[in-house]
Amino acid sequence: MSRRLLAVLAAGALLALPAGARAQGSSSILVSGGLSLPMSDLGDVSNSGYNINLGLAFGAPIIPVGARIEGGFSSFDGKGGGTTTRIASATANAVLNLGPTGAAPYLIGGLGIYNRRLSSDAFNASDSRTTAGVNIGGGIRFPLGGISTFLEARYHVMLGNQNEATNLQFIPISFGVQF
Q1: Which residue did the predictor score with more confidence, 124 or 37?
Q2: Which fold has domain 2-178?
Q3: Maximum mean pLDDT: which of 3-7, 124-128, 139-143
Q4: Where do the domains of the chain lie?
Q5: pTM of this prediction?
Q6: Cα(167)–Cα(138) distance, rounded to whole angstroms?
């Protein structure tokens, strides 16, 4: 089911671009990673963790709005050890570029599907739940040598319920490369 939903999100993001942008558009691959900060309930029980992401970016040089489709993974160890929370996500995002090519800031936000997996070493047990979510943030892109790089932070909110521990919130701070 998640592959089918990811395909629908990808098609929707691409179709959301104006026809002229699709005709003159370009696409690129993004790879990023960095620190993930747990917030709210997740922050009460987990330490900071890490994140890795892989995505496709779509845009056109003359239009400041683009799209990104991404898969992400964040992992957090529990305070006191023994537990791990892992969150996998598939998101479709709109990107608003606030400046010309080169070094320029941007805003990003979108919808996605999030799967959280709780593991406990002490009880040798795990639990997995999937729910929808949203993210919003910003970043700056800049050339580094001959490659295009970016630094961004986004606030992710899983839209689940507290009883199933699917209402998690976290902020990944990522450095990435765009090919």
Answers
A1: 37
A2: Porin (2.40.160)
A3: 139-143
A4: 2-178
A5: 0.83
A6: 22
